[in-house]
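INFO  loader      accepted 1 record
INFO  loader      residues=124
INFO  predictor   begin
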Amino acid sequence: MTLYDYLENTSGTGVLATANSNGNVDIAIYARPHVIDENTVALIMNERLSYKNLTSNPKAAYLFLEKGPGYKGKRLYLTKTREETDVELIESMRRRKTDKYQESDLKKYLVYFSVDKIRPLVGQ
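INFO  predictor   done
INFO  writer      dumping tokens
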């Protein structure tokens, strides 16, 4: 199964971990990344701590825990490669459309990552 098929067709919860240049860690619940190709994913991010950490340290880890019994899922090891601020592009990529999102005063970014490594949730 490709990364695209997995993330588009598997229900679960995602968690993004980042750290700033001083090693201070942040962890946050995040939606599934958008798969651009098998080596690139993108996340829509607000201008909050996770995004700010990526401005000084491009490394991140994304954990996806599949819905259901047991511990199934994937860990993606990521490196930020670029970002976009095009509002129309970001809006077109959003999976959920809500008024609350549109009313937010926080600046939004579409952040692209290279996928450095994929590991199962448990083991390896």
